[in-house]
Amino acid sequence: RRERQRFVDKNGRCNVQHGNLGGESSRYLSDLFTTLVDLKWRWNLLIFLLTYTVAWLVMASMWWGIAYLRGDLHQAHDDTYSPCVANVYNFPSAFLFFIETEATIGYGHRYITERCPEGIVLFLFQSLLGSVVDAFLIGCMFIKMSQPKKRAETLMFSRAAVVSQRDGKLCLMFRVGNLRNSHMVSAQIRCKLIKSRQTPEGEFLPLDQCELDVGFGTGADQLFLVSPLTICHEINSKSPFFCLSRRSLRSEQFEIVVILEGIVETTGMTCQARTSYTEDEVLWGHRFLPVMSLEDGFFRVDYSQFHATFEVPTPPYSVKE
Questions:
Q1: Are 274 and 194 in contact (CB under 8 A)?
Q2: Taking a C-beta distance cutoff of 8 angstroms, is the pair 154, 178 a contact?
Q3: Is the alpha carbon torsion for 213, 219, 220, 225 positive or negative?
Q4: pLDDT score of 20
Q5: Which residue range or ranges hold the Inward rectifier potassium channel C-terminal domain (predicted)?
């Protein structure tokens, strides 16, 4: 069957785009810091470079303008003349003076004299403006680099979900794993069933979300994720899959969105990993291969078998049948 459009990709990216915002787009500017953090890296780097380049050129032009209006450029080589900024002859020298001041390099060759009150005021303005720009842009880059999105890439989900019996009950199962030795603190998993339906009143809901119970009452949704775990949803009378059989699975259209959340042990930041399973990725009558083995003094996980399944005898009927 041709792969249909997903609500959530396998890598966790949500296929939702917001359009025709109208006047509501101004809300992005009211929260400019979050807007910059959410941008892609290439736009962040471009804004970072442009902001500093423009600020440097503007401030250097202001220092050059003070020297030009005072006539310092024409008498800079006169030892008896006291300029606003010593040894500023042209725009490049004014630019170098600004860089030395902003970066606190201070070579000592160019400096402000005490007979330049406008230069002192500009120096104070430059210091305040430079601190604000540095705090905003560097803070934005730091937050973006410390985001735990890359940590989510080391959390694995099985490529397919399976339906088979466990403890005499028909269950929908999938597997999750953590590739790093560092743990996910307070890891919790949730599942949403995305499926179109029509209400008794005739209202059509194209992307109705329904919660799948993966152990809320028993605490099975709280994971100790030190080794791959198989997450189980029991199909019973309260499950939306109560009428699902092997035959009806071929004609169904649904998507199961899996959300794994936890706190990164090394940074203390909350991390979220997502994936989804469509009806084509649900294997009826399959079970996951074991990946754990006992070695000399430790347990070994074989991730080469993480996605592997094998067939097991499973009734082709629904729980209702």
A1: no
A2: yes
A3: positive
A4: 74
A5: 155-320
- Most distant pair of Cα atoms in the chain: their distance: 105
Query: What separation in angstroms does the CA of 175 have from each of 129, 143, 158, 219, 312?
Result: 52, 31, 5, 17, 17
Structure tokens given for 151: 């940590």
User: Which residue ranges in the chain fall short of pLDDT 70?
Assistant: 1-3, 76-77, 79
* Phi-psi sector, 108: left (phi>0), alpha (psi -120 to 50), beta: left
Q: What is the pLDDT of residue 46?
A: 92
Q: How far apart are CA 60 and CA 93, in angstroms?
A: 9
Cα 243 to Cα 248: distance, rounded to the nearest angstrom: 8
Residue 94 backbone dihedrals phi, psi, to 5 degrees = -65, -40
Q: What 3-state DSSP class applies to 204?
A: strand
Q: What is the DSSP-derived secondary structure letter of residue 39?
A: S
Give the dihedral of Cα atoms 33, 38, 41, 46; nearest 10 deg.
-40
**CB of 120 within 8 A of CB of 112?**
yes
pTM of the model: 0.75
